[in-house]
Amino acid sequence: MYYDQKECGRRIADLRKQKGMTQDQLAEKLNLSYSMMTKIETGFKGISIDLLIELSVLFDVSMEYIILGCDLYRDKLKEQLALMKEQFLTFEKTL
Question: What is the tens place of the pLDDT at every residue in 15-33?
């Protein structure tokens, strides 16, 4: 797993579209120029930590998701819950 600037930009564009926002609207909300927003979404420009935090809060997603495309913490929790469910069902059969 590694940081891919173009994929990060694509995820930002997808999140923006899911919120029903235009590039202009998002750029204004983040205090960026339209040109800079376009460069970020096309992967020609990376994002700062401050901008990453703003995007994470705005779109209600983890910073990991924006950067890497997955939420490692949530994925780990899902695995643990699946294992606990399996163990519970196995235990329940012994009763």
Answer: 999 999 999 999 999 999 9
3-state secondary structure of 30: coil
- Block residue for tokens 């204004």: 28
Q: Name the one residue in this structure whose structure tokens are 């990376």.
A: 46
End-to-end Cα spacing for the chain:
43
Burial letters 49-62, b for 16+ CB under 10 A, else e: eebbebbbeebeee
Say what the pLDDT of residue 63 is: 93
Q: What is the DSSP letter of 19?
A: T
Question: Does pTM top 0.90 for this prediction?
Answer: no
